[in-house]
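Example S7 (structure tokens).
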């Protein structure tokens, strides 16, 4: 889920637009479970639990470092808006959200009819957020049993990052992005050497630091061959 501005694009989960500027330690996780027919489920999670003590104190304030601190009602409203958007998107069903203010973990989940629906969702969201179209796309060839995640690095990501104040840059120091794919069939090959195949051979995980993504030090493209 990487776009022209790493911080703004990650606000696909909406909650990050509120809280990421207030903490330097967060994890973005996207999980896709793919069925043999190309349908499946996607879950997007913002995990800020490593900073939960700091965030609990921050939530009692009005502003921090020039950023408005949201009320719980604001966060719930943003997530409800995301749920409503997904519920009205063709090919999407069973939309749900999870909100954990004790650990500051927030997630959105939904089922999709085909892998193409994922691209449709992400493109529509970036259009509504008025950011550049995403540099991720997904494809599934059911005949060849090949699932692909395509990624193109844009140097403007780093350009936007360099424009930030030094204190704001620290937001990304310990931040990470994790992608997890699960399949019905066993995995026979994964093109990205940094991706790890599970012992069951039915899942692939890839983790990258936010700074590696921003600086173009990692390629997130992966082609997964299924048995």
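Recovered sequence:
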């Amino acid at each position: 889920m990487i776009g022209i501005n790493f911080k703004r694009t990650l606000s696909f989960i909406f909650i990050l637009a509120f809280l990421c500027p207030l903490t330097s330690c967060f994890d973005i996780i996207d999980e896709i479970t793919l069925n043999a027919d190309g349908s499946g489920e996607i879950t997007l999670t913002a995990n800020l639990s490593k900073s939960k003590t700091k965030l609990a104190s921050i939530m009692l304030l009005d502003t921090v470092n020039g950023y408005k601190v949201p009320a719980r009602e604001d966060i719930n409203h943003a997530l409800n808006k995301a749920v409503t958007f997904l519920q009205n998107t063709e090919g999407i069903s069973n939309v749900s959200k999870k909100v954990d203010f004790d650990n500051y973990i927030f997630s959105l989940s939904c089922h999709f009819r085909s892998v193409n629906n994922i691209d449709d969702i992400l493109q529509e969201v970036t259009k509504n957020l008025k950011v550049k179209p995403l540099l991720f796309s997904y494809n599934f060839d059911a005949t060849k049993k090949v699932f692909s995640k395509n990624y193109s690095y844009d140097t403007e990501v780093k350009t936007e990052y360099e424009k930030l104040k030094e204190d704001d840059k620290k937001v990304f120091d310990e931040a990470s992005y994790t992608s997890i794919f699960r399949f019905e069939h066993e995995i026979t090959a994964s093109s990205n050497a940094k991706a790890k195949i599970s012992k069951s051979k039915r899942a692939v995980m890839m983790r990258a630091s936010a700074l590696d993504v921003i600086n173009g030090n990692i390629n997130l493209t992966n082609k997964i061959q299924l048995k």
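Notes on this example. Residues 1-14, 128-134 have pLDDT under 50 and may be disordered.
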